[in-house]
Automatic annotation (TrEMBL):
Organism: Corynebacterium afermentans
Designated name of the protein: AEC family transporter
UniProt-listed Gene3D superfamilies: 1.20.1530.20
Annotated localization: Cell membrane
Chief place where the protein resides: membrane
Similarity remark: Belongs to the auxin efflux carrier (TC 2.A.69) family.
Matching InterPro entries: Mem_transp_PIN-like (IPR004776), Na+/solute_symporter_sf (IPR038770)
């Protein structure tokens, strides 16, 4: 992962030939996701991956070891200057506002407990910033600068809130907040940011093993996701919350971002970057959190599935308009 981010540290607008190759890489990013999901589905169909607790072991390994390793090894070598860009501010505000909109809709129309509502709110606003966000930022925007700050924003700020809302085992607000702040992915994000901000160099014998472990994160989550599709079919239940979260993710969040960016006076490339990143599909990490805490799994799974298929047309529409 470090090599991937290092490849495009200060990318510029691609030439026509680069754009054609780049769009192929964007499609490759989607192809990778669908292929690994299909592998998980096939393994579950053949009973290589068992149901229930057996499948969830993949999520737990990713949650406690692989994803924290990926986050730390990526953020620790990132440039912190981009963290203070107005584009990141737009994404942050759009994320919070979209979550609040879902909470309001849920309170009015859906009979959900707090954990399921949090699952839907996260699904409507938590975007895939790495395995889809990186190639799209690089080749559609011509600049990968905002991907790592967007990732840290999610892990260090949004993840504690989401995990606190999903963790039904914690009794009381204080314990829920503590559960969110001490989650491995959150600790890894803070630690990586501290290392990056201090301009420290992580020794290779420390960083290299973390990169190897981090490489397992996305395949583990995607295969578990694919395995979950052998059970209840998409949109069989929780149809209203799922479709609401999907619409908010692909239409509502970019619309909020457009309003915020307009109020801040953004235009041109910064406006375009904010809208494209806000239109990214729901991240598989949302499903991983839900599966780990056994809260709102169906809503997260179905929203990830739908937005992953529908995000590309949504982003093409944004590109056509802006």
């Amino acid at each position: 992962m470090r090599q991937i981010f290092a490849t495009f540290p200060n990318a510029t607008t691609p030439s026509p030939g680069d754009t054609l190759t780049g769009m192929l890489d964007v499609l490759t990013g989607f192809a990778i996701i669908f292929t690994v999901i299909a592998a998980g589905w096939w393994l579950a169909h053949k009973r290589v991956i068992g149901p229930g607790e057996q499948r969830l072991q993949l999520n737990r390994i990713a949650f406690h070891v692989a994803t924290p390793s990926l986050i730390f090894s990526s953020v620790a070598v990132a440039d912190t200057d981009a963290f203070f860009s107005p584009v990141i501010l737009v994404i942050a505000v759009a994320t919070v506002v979209t979550m609040l909109i879902y909470w309001a809709i849920s309170a009015l129309f859906f009979r959900q407990d707090a954990a399921e509502t949090m699952a839907g709110a996260a699904s409507s606003s938590y975007y895939n910033s790495v395995n889809i966000g990186l190639p799209i930022a690089t080749y559609v925007l011509g600049d990968a600068t905002f991907v790592v700050p967007a990732l840290v924003l999610q892990m260090a700020v949004l993840s504690p809130i989401v995990i606190a809302g999903l963790d039904r085992s914690s009794s009381g607000v204080a314990k829920s907040v503590l559960s969110g702040l001490t989650a491995p992915v959150v600790v890894a994000a803070f630690a990586g940011f501290a290392v990056s901000a201090a301009s420290w160099t992580v020794p290779e014998p420390v960083l290299a093993p973390l990169e190897i472990l981090g490489g397992a994160s996305i395949p583990l989550i995607l295969m578990s996701f694919g395995a979950s599709l052998t059970g209840e079919k998409v949109l069989t239940s929780h149809r209203g919350p799922t479709l609401t979260a999907t619409a908010l993710k692909l239409v509502g969040m970019p619309a909020v971002a457009w309003v915020v960016a307009t109020l801040l006076g953004l235009d041109g490339q910064e406006m375009y970057a904010a809208l494209i990143l806000c239109a990214l599909p729901t991240a598989q990490n949302v499903y991983n959190y839900a599966a780990t805490y056994r809260s709102g799994e169906v809503i997260c799974r179905d929203t990830v599935f739908l937005t992953t298929f529908l995000a590309l047309p949504a982003m093409l529409l944004i590109a056509g308009v802006f």
